[in-house]
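Private note to self, pasted from the team thread so I don't lose it. Backbone tokens:
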């Protein structure tokens, strides 16, 4: 993974909790990703998807008023481009570990 260039990937991180969003964004930056967009609501995420067409989307499952599942359905209906969408299911104790696992899985499978 040392010679894997991730700087050209466009990523969207969607979470209504600013702290969790910051953790994920910082991990992506540490991995060399530079095109990282953030959204705190499903509505903002849809706008970013239409305008910037991210290749990877991380969304929290438990957002309000639009859940991550609802957002994913809307993205798949509205946005005419292929994207990898990952739902973040987290508990307080294991959230960072789960996020790291998902990020590892992406890096292995790119």
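Design output:
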């Amino acid at each position: 993974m040392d010679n894997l260039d991730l700087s050209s990937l466009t990523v969207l991180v969607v979470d209504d909790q600013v702290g969790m969003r910051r953790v994920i964004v910082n991990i992506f930056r540490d991995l060399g990703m530079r095109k990282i967009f953030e959204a705190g609501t499903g509505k903002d995420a849809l706008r970013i998807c239409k305008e910037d067409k991210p290749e990877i989307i991380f969304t929290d499952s438990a957002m309000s008023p639009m859940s991550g599942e609802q957002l994913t359905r809307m993205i798949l209906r509205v946005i005419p481009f292929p994207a990898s969408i990952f739902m973040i299911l987290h508990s307080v104790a294991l959230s960072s570990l789960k996020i790291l696992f998902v990020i590892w899985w992406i890096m292995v499978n790119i």
